[in-house]
Amino acid sequence: MKAANATWDALTDSYLVRLRVERGLSRHSLDAYSRDLRGFLEFCALHKISPSQFDAAAITRYLASLADRGFEPSSQRRHLSAIRGLARELIDRGVITRDPLPSVRLTHLTRKLPRTLSRRDIELLLETIDTSTVRGLRDRAMLELTYSSGLRVSELVGLQLSQLNLRAGLVTVLGKGSKERMVPLGGAATRAITEYLKRREEELQSDRAKKPQRPPAKRSNAVFITRLGRAMTRQGFFKALKGWAANDRRLKWMSPHTLRHSFATHLLEGGADLRAVQEMLGHSDISTTQIYTHLSKSHLRKVHRTFHPRATRAEATDID
């Protein structure tokens, strides 16, 4: 591919191939990058911006257009991340000579702190789940595991039986870029998973006894499966969580990622080391984990105001 003749489509395809080969990104992650870049390419086509004209001004105009269309700061930052990688591709191909990203101002991309659940909210959510059924036991085990170990939804639904070590209380997680990390399992999560797997096996044996003439179906190695024996999907878990959260109108806003946010925040509020939380979350850059320190600082201020005898404004000003 000659730099002078390079097209946006060819450069983008080359960049996505590099992500797949060099970083080992999953199909889901590649699709997300492709969607975000498609929006930028459409913007470039509309404004007749060629690859050689790729500069800070073009990026700033694109981010402003996203803001005008109502994109949240987090979504704008995600698009910028995809563009940053594309910029490196253009530099490597000799299309441009300088990285324009350092000149892009991010003042309008103030990062919004993630919402989290309180410890009591999580208890109430878990208590709403009907554990008299295999489905209920499965859903409770999934929620307990996500909150106990901070798994991403993709990591949760992709979890295989071989990745669990219930005796040792550990789970081996295959994260982004196929990177492995080992995360402790809490006692509540271990008990919930053990109970679910036991009931799941009983159900499978019962089905085989009822239909002995039917050839045995191929068993999934996934930890969490549907009633048809297939691995759970991201959409399936989202639907299950929304169903249980609907029982309490205060929790209707939550998403599967809320449990991961709550996991990190509650650890830091309890005094956990930031590096340890980074390792458990599987963040490659600690700056990603640091967002939770803002939440924990808010918690510390609340504790100080509640328990320190001289913390209230009225008492603090009563000094002459």
C-alpha Rg, in Å?
A: 24 Å
Helix content: 55-70%
Order of secondary-structure elements: HHHHHHHEEEHHHHHHH
Q: What proportion of the residues form beta strands (DSSP E)? A: under 5%
Content-based structural category: mainly alpha
| Structural shape | globular
Strand count, sense and barrel status of the largest sheet are: 3 strands, antiparallel
Write down the CATH class of the largest domain. Answer: Mainly Alpha
- Neighbour order of strands in the largest sheet: 1-2-3
Number of strands: 3
- What's the number of domains? 2
Q: Mean pLDDT, as a whole number?
A: 85
Number of helices: 14
CATH topology of the largest domain: hpI Integrase, Chain A
* Uncertain runs: 314-320
The CATH H-level superfamily of the largest domain is: Intergrase catalytic core
Outline of the structure:
The protein has 320 residues and is mainly α. The protein has 14 helices and three strands.
Describe the structure.
The chain is mostly helical and about 325 residues long. It folds into 2 domains: about 5-105, DNA polymerase, domain 1 (Orthogonal Bundle), CATH 1.10.150.130; about 120-305, Orthogonal Bundle (hpI Integrase, Chain A). About 55% of the residues lie in helices and about 5% in strands. The chain contains 14 helices and 3 strands. It has helices at about 10-20, 25-45, 55-70, 75-90, 120-125, 135-150, 155, 185-210, 235-245, 255-270, 275-280, 285-290, 290-305, 315; strands at about 165, 170-175, 180-185. It has a 3-stranded antiparallel β-sheet, with no helix packed on it. A hairpin with a 5-residue loop joins strand 2 and strand 3. Helix 2 crosses helix 4 (about 75-90) and helix 3 runs antiparallel to helix 4. The radius of gyration is 24 Å and the shape is globular. The chain starts with 7 loop residues before the first helix and ends with a helix. Mean pLDDT is about 85; it is low at about 315-320.
